[in-house]
Design goal:
Elements (H helix, E strand, L loop, with lengths): L3 E5 L10 H15 L3 E8 L6 E4 L2 E7 L7 H25 L4 E5 L4 H11 L3 E4 L4 H4 L9 H14 L2 E4 L2 H11 L6 E3 L14 H9 L7 E6 L8 H14 L3 E6 L5 H10 L6 E5 L3 H6 L6 E4 L8 H8 L4 E4 L4 H4 L7 E3 L4 H12 L2 H14 L5 H16 L7
Parallel strand pairs: 1-2, 1-5, 2-4, 5-6, 6-7, 7-8, 9-10, 9-12, 10-11, 12-13, 13-14
Antiparallel strand pairs: 3-4
Helix pairs in contact: 1-15, 2-3, 8-13
């Protein structure tokens, strides 16, 4: 019999809060291709079926009310979601004999730990980011101290922890005090075929909304939160515009830092040079790479750097802060360029270099096209399956 794995995630398509939903879907589907029987226990909206099979993945959804925006209330909401997931997982355990439980982040830690004990099954946890990293070590007050405590607890309760980069492995080992040998580095994947490829006419129409043909368009894309560093990119923009006249910027995304970023842009006199799009759907979001001349990833804290991968896979030159997992995702002077983190002047210098040098731009695009092939989902799944095999042995794989 093939291994039967229960993967637990607080989001899964069509319910998408961020990159986690896509990660869990692609990993689950690629594991099925390897012969693993995958069940996903997740949260669903009113329009999502409670049970369905998609690309061979058995998806089980629980109904939950919309989560609150206030962080204190959100923590309480997460506790109730875990209680509901535990109840649903116990019912699944009465039907299926699970060999392993694989949870994603602190949001499902409580349910995963209890289900693994009930099933007498190994527990694997993927930690995609840490509260310690998101807040630059400031986790001494509630609710940050609570979330940090849950992350530490689940990392120590898991037989194996998966990290998306060597940077994250080292951080997890250090702040949670667990042996590095219990942490496996498996990078996130990307499937260039998943990214939309609008035709030339549609791209021209979309670009015309934000920039004239002769202008240069700089893209900032992602959650608008402090650790993503968009404030640094805005601080650099006046110098970029002065050196490359006609440069415009586009901010795509939403988040808790959005109002502050707009106020900063006003103070810098930038609003006539750019657009804040707010939250938009995936199709338009990914199409933006096709109309931009440069994508900037200025993160202060970045466990991996999926935006950089998406930009490179879409043929958009990319520059990134020299920090965290971005160092591993973007090799300097080949597939992209890096600049000193937290340094707006360094960011501006590198951006001006790319925007002013068509030959450099073309070379970055060409080398990035080959580089992104290293992040294939089949490889990510195979490496994850190796972790499973170490824990469940001969049960793994097809009969």
């Amino acid at each position: 019999m093939p291994a039967r794995v229960l993967i637990v995630s607080w989001e899964y398509p069509p319910l998408i809060e961020g990159g986690l939903a896509r990660h869990v879907r692609k990993l689950s589907e690629a594991l099925v291709e390897l012969g693993v029987e995958v069940h996903v226990l997740t949260r669903g909206g009113e329009d999502s079926p409670a049970e369905e099979t998609v690309a061979g993945v058995e998806v089980h959804r629980i109904r939950e009310p919309s989560h609150p925006r206030d962080l204190d209330e959100f923590v309480n909401w997460v506790g109730q979601m875990n209680a509901d997931m535990l109840e649903a997982g116990v019912e699944l355990g009465d039907i299926f004999d699970f060999d392993l439980v694989h949870g994603h982040d602190w949001l499902v830690a409580g349910a995963c730990e209890q289900l693994a004990r009930l099933f007498d099954a190994p527990l694997v946890t993927t930690i995609h980011a840490t509260e310690y990293g998101r807040h630059q070590g400031w986790v001494n007050e509630y609710p940050q101290t609570y979330i940090h405590g849950v992350e530490r607890w689940i990392a120590n309760r898991s037989q194996r922890t998966i990290a998306c980069s060597a940077f994250m492995r080292d951080q997890i080992a250090d702040i949670f005090d667990i042996p590095a040998g219990r942490i496996t580095v498996i990078p996130n994947g990307i499937d260039p075929g998943d990214l939309p490829r609008p035709d030339a006419a549609e791209l021209a129409r979309l670009r015309a909304e934000f920039a004239a043909p002769e202008e240069r368009l700089v893209l900032l894309i992602g959650r608008l939160v402090y650790e993503k560093g968009f404030q640094l990119a805005l601080e650099a923009m006046p110098a970029v515009i002065a050196a490359v006249p006609g440069t415009r910027f586009l901010v795509a995304g939403s988040g808790t830092h959005e109002a502050e970023l707009k106020a900063q842009a006003e103070q810098l006199g930038l609003m006539e040079h750019g657009t804040f799009l707010g939250w938009i759907g995936d199709d338009v979001l990914h199409a933006l790479y096709g109309i931009a001349d440069l994508t900037v990833v200025p993160s202060i804290y970045e466990p991996f750097g999926l935006v950089a991968l998406e930009a490179m896979a879409s043929g958009c030159p990319c520059i990134v802060a020299d920090t965290g997992g971005l160092r591993e995702v973007v090799p300097h002077e080949s597939a992209g360029l890096r600049f000193a983190a937290r340094d707006p002047e360094a960011l501006a210098e590198v951006a001006i270099r790319v925007l002013s040098d068509p030959e450099l731009e073309a070379r970055l695009i060409a080398e990035a096209k080959d580089h992104v092939l290293r992040f294939d989902w089949a490889d990510v799944a195979a490496r994850t399956a190796e972790v499973y095999a170490e824990l469940v042995g001969a049960k793994l794989g097809p009969a």
